[in-house]
Amino acid sequence: MKAAYLHIPFCDHICYYCDFNKYLIKNQPVDDYLKAMDKEIRTMMTSHNRLDLQTLFVGGGTPTALTPDQLSFFLKIVKQALWHEGIQEYTFEANPENMTEEKLSRMYEEGVNRLSIGVQTFNSTGLKEIGRLHSVEEVYRGLELARHIGFENVSIDLMFGLPGQTESDLDRSIDEALKLQPDHLSIYALQVEPKTIFYNRMRKGELHLPGPDREADMYDQLIERLEEKGYLQYEISNFAKPGYESKHNLLYWQNEMYFGFGAGAHGYVDDERVVNAGAVKGYIRRVEETGSAVISTHPVPLVEQIEEELFLGLRTRFGVSKERFKEKFHREIETVYGEVISRLKEKQLLIEEGDRLILSQEGLFISNEVLSYFLQPTIIDKSKED
């Protein structure tokens, strides 16, 4: 076991694009929820060794929407049940509007060593159009405060392909982000998902997006700008100064096992995908009754494990190690994907660097298409999966 994800599903406001498991915090049983998380974590850890954990990641929702006292209670839960001196990275998602000195100080004192700040854009009008509460000034103030307190690993989230966004708008956002000298940047293309405000607007013809060609130009633009400034693109949507790649996310992309705690959280434990109840009250009730909130499980067969190894690994600049593949699955990767690998290398979408298979720059631009080649490795002898 390598990682643990902890989900705080509460928000002060629902962003128009967000399809994560989230609830407006007003009138929610937040204290009961945190107590349930405490019980869920302790129950799970009775059969697992926390010393196996390398990273912790607290996401949402908006974890910093908790009050200072609720935050302290949650941090104490993590400290007692999961924390140990070998934790390499302990990340907290934060929104600029509630990054107070009190909250940041408590997080820092309890071992949080990385912040992931949801900025999305530095265009004030654009922030309102996507439903964000914070101002640009609050971004500057929050990051300055975090640095003053002692955080040495800070990531900023940005988005592109937003309604009305132009290449020059994106360029200005990148300029402003770089002035703050973050250690890491996650930059995602807007995806309009069902059950979001944007989805309803799109169905009514009220959502005006840049379109796929301009979005591709934006992606090319941001890669060039960030690499000029020393940020290495180590995954399709992630850029970092050397040594500041997200260790937690790399464990996901390396297809390692991880716990998922909280309402709607997903985990990958002992070769089995598990999903928790998503509704807050349903989550609390299940944990109170059984100590677990799991509502579905899916044992991952060898075929899926191999697919995921390629799907996830090829998202990163480190690619897929042929030797690690052999150690993990007891077969050469060429015996499974030899024809596919040859075809993609001929098309210059896949390159081989020593032991590793890596997407070329052109391959990254059409990654979804390239990765589809690795579906259904049918030449595996399924009778030997067990």
Molecular structure report:
- With 386 residues, the protein is α/β, with parallel strands linked by helices.
- It has two domains: 3-252, tm_1862 like domain (pyruvate-formate lyase- activating enzyme, Alpha-Beta Horseshoe), CATH 3.80.30; 314-384, no CATH class.
- It is built from 15 helices and 17 strands.
- It starts with a strand and ends in a 15-residue tail after the last helix.
What characteristics describe this protein?
386 residues; single chain; 17 strands; pyruvate-formate lyase- activating enzyme; 15 helices; 9-stranded mixed sheet
Structure, briefly:
With about 375 residues, the chain is α/β, with parallel strands linked by helices.
End-to-end Cα distance: 21 Å
| Spatial arrangement of strands, main beta sheet | 9-10-8-7-6-5-4-1-11
How is the main sheet built? 9 strands, mixed
Give helix % range.
Answer: 40-55%
- Determine the CATH superfamily of the largest domain: tm_1862 like domain
Might you state the CATH topology name of the largest domain? pyruvate-formate lyase- activating enzyme
Query: Beta-strand percentage?
Result: 15-25%
Number of helices: 15
Uncertain stretches of 5 or more adjacent residues: 382-386
Number of strands: 17
**CATH architecture label of the largest domain:** Alpha-Beta Horseshoe
Question: Any chance you could write out the topology, listing elements then pairs?
Answer:
Blueprint: E1 3-8, E2 10-11, E3 23-24, H1 30-45, E4 55-60, H2 68-81, E5 89-94, H3 101-109, E6 114-120, H4 124-129, H5 136-149, E7 154-160, H6 167-179, E8 184-189, H7 197-203, H8 212-228, E9 232-235, E10 238-240, H9 247-253, E11 258-261, E12 266-269, E13 272-276, H10 280-290, E14 294-299, H11 302-313, E15 320-321, H12 322-329, H13 333-346, E16 350-353, E17 356-359, H14 361-365, H15 367-371
Parallel strand pairs: 1-4, 1-11, 2-3, 4-5, 5-6, 6-7, 7-8
Antiparallel strand pairs: 8-10, 9-10, 12-13, 13-14, 15-17, 16-17
